[in-house]
Amino acid sequence: MWDVAAHERAESDRDVEPGTLLVAAPGLLDPNFRRTVVYVIEHRGEGTLGVVLNRPSDVAVQDVLPVWAPHTSTPKAVFVGGPVDEKTALCLAAFLPGHDPSAIGGVVPVRGPVALIDLDADPGELAPRMRGLRVFAGYAGWNSGQLDGEISRGDWILVPALPDDVLVTATGDLWGRVLRRQGMPLALLSTFPADVARN
Fold first, then answer.
1. Which residues, other chains included, contact 60 with Cβ-Cβ below 8 Å and sequence gap of 6+?
2. Torsion sign, CA atoms 199, 3, 183, 141
3. How confident is the model at residue 5 (pLDDT cuts 50, 70, 90)?
4. Alpha-carbon gap, residue 41 to 140, rounded angstroms
5. Could you tell me which of 143, 121, 117, 187 has the C-alpha nearest to residue 48?
6. What are the start-end ranges of the E strands in 5-80?
7. Nearest Cα to 132, choosing from 169, 103, 106?
8. Which of 198, 197, 195, 199 is nearest to 29 (CA)?
9. What Rg do the C-alpha atoms of the chain give, in angstroms?
């Protein structure tokens, strides 16, 4: 795998923290994470929690959370947040400028305008303050030290997130787009073929 560890040691400002993206390295072939982009929601000594941003499911938000469906960003599908506890729903929203998530009830700030939404909150109160939201089934989780080991092995590339990353559409290649915007040499990885056998 690509020597991400050396790259990460050289860039200490890119430590794992809420709002970091974990971009699957081209050599990461685990079907749960191949070519995924994971948004880190929480990172503490006990472990790390995030959601996969680029795996839409065939389930409509309307079918499981109808009250939130009108406020969901397109596509209005539940995204597969990860292999852990897929019956648990998490919701991330990006708030409009001038609306500080830390001052709004029913949300848990993550980073900047991005926050976790309490799905028991009143969508009518929150929706006018949001640019969009995304519902995820399940999450990606790592025990203490587990993610550090995977990063050292070169499984993940750490980059900062943009607020719109959490609202990605199903038609875009978020994996490639995130890598391309990092500049060289990471941008080269975006050209790595999905199937090496077809190269």
1. 69, 76, 77, 78
2. positive
3. very low
4. 10
5. 143
6. 20-24, 37-44, 47-52, 56-60, 77-80
7. 169
8. 195
9. 17
Residue 13 binned pLDDT confidence (cut-offs 50, 70, 90): very low
112-148 pLDDT, tens digit each: 999 999 999 999 999 999 999 999 999 999 998 899 9
DSSP H helix total and E strand total for the chain: 6, 10
- Cα dihedral 6, 10, 15, 19 in deg (nearest 10): -100
Task: Name the residue type at position 80.
Answer: V
* 47 Cα distance to chain centroid: 16
Q: What is the pTM of this model?
A: 0.86
Work out whether the CA dihedral 168, 64, 118, 96 comes out positive or negative: positive
A 10 A CB-CB count for 159 gives 19
In this structure, which amino acid lies at residue 169? T
Domains annotated on the chain, with CATH: 4-189 (3.40.1740.10)
User: What are the tens digits of pLDDT across the range 53-66?
Assistant: 999 999 999 999 99
With bands split at pLDDT 50, 70 and 90, how would you rate the model's confidence at 194? low
Nearest residue to 116 via CA among 100, 133, 128 = 133
